[in-house]
């Protein structure tokens, strides 16, 4: 989570304000991402501009054509 936040060019304080939590709570979430609720994780990823893609284990991502369309 921390690397996504840094790539977005945001501080913990900026993200925490948008998420409605304290900077200390966000710091704890970044240190222990396994404890983040699904709702909070989705909100955090949205703030950071990160897309969550779900697929079955061991399933390869879909192939893209040169135009960027799925096969």
The tally of strands reads 0
Using the alpha-carbon principal axes, give the shape: elongated
Content of β-strand? under 5%
Distance between the termini: 31 Å
Which runs of at least 5 residues are low in confidence (pLDDT < 50)?
A: none
The H/E string reads HHHH
Helix content: 40-55%
Number of helices: 4
Major β-sheet annotation = none
Compute the gyration radius: what is it? 15 Å
Given helix and strand content, the structural type is mainly alpha
**Mean pLDDT score, rounded?**
89
Written description of the protein model:
By secondary structure, this protein is mainly α. Helices cover 48% and strands 0% of the residues. It contains 4 helices and no strands. Helix 2 crosses helix 3. The longest helix is centred in the middle third of the chain and has 11 residues. The protein is elongated. The relative contact order is 0.15.
């Amino acid at each position: 989570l921390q690397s996504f936040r840094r790539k977005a060019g945001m501080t913990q304080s900026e993200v925490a304000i948008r998420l409605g939590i304290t900077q200390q709570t966000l710091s704890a979430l970044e240190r222990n991402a396994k404890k983040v609720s699904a709702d909070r994780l989705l909100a955090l990823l949205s703030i950071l501009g990160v897309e969550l893609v779900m697929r079955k284990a061991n399933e390869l991502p879909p192939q893209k054509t040169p135009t960027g369309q799925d096969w």
